[in-house]
Amino acid sequence: MILFIGRCLKTIECFKKNSGSSYHMASTLHRYPKGPWNLVLVGDRSVGKTAFAHQETYDSSTEDEHRRVIQIDGMMTEFRIVDSRAYRECCEELPHIIRSGHAFILMYSTTQRITFEDIVGYCSQVRRIKHDPDTLFVIVGNKCDLVHKREVTHREGAALADELGCNFFETSSKTGENVQPVVVTLARLLKDKDKDKRRGKFWNYFGRWWTLLCC
């Protein structure tokens, strides 16, 4: 017992030297933000990105950033929907906005096949800039209300999402159909990813503490 207490005291002293105080660990574990999260809209012109953003926001702080607070599983979550249309025209700004994004909405128009064919390229671009294999994104086929103008089937969109390993939705920025489920899905995925990060950080600290205790 005396030996165990001695090791505990040694561990505390070592930890204080490395982190400044025992409180540092607890505060660090809760440092990950629960919001605001940046959801970046990526896609060709005229697919409905701006209208989509306005459907899901209560405040537009700038022309290309739109804010919203929603309740996810009992927790209030703030996010920004960032419309990349301006950055698409200014290539040097696009990497910056992608790096600042926490999740991505890759959007095409169900009435324009060319916009659907560009999705794979956008996905590759996001993954290349983020350098994160676990980057969160969904594929959205917008303008599903224009049935008589459809050029891309629901099955094609779902197949592409399966290939890229993400969720798929068809939406209408005009009627609001399925717009909120897109945002809620990404918010839940971000929440789960945040939990995994904090859990991993805890176990890193625990492993460090255990190593010091046993040395």
Give a description of the structure.
- With 215 residues, this protein is of the alpha/beta class.
- The chain folds into two domains: 2-30, no CATH class; 37-196, P-loop containing nucleotide triphosphate hydrolases (Rossmann fold).
- 50% of the residues lie in helices and 20% in strands.
- The protein has nine helices and six strands; from the N terminus they run ααβαββααβααβαβα.
- A six-stranded mixed beta sheet has the order 2-3-1-4-5-6, sandwiched between helices.
- The radius of gyration is 22 Å and the shape is globular.
Task: Write the SSE topology.
Layout: H1 2-19, H2 22-29, E1 37-43, H3 49-55, E2 65-72, E3 75-83, H4 85-89, H5 94-99, E4 103-109, H6 113-117, H7 119-130, E5 136-142, H8 154-164, E6 167-170, H9 179-214
Helix pairs in contact: 1-9
Summary keywords:
2 domains, 50% helix, alpha/beta, 6-stranded mixed sheet, Rossmann fold, single chain, 215 residues, Ras-related_GTPase
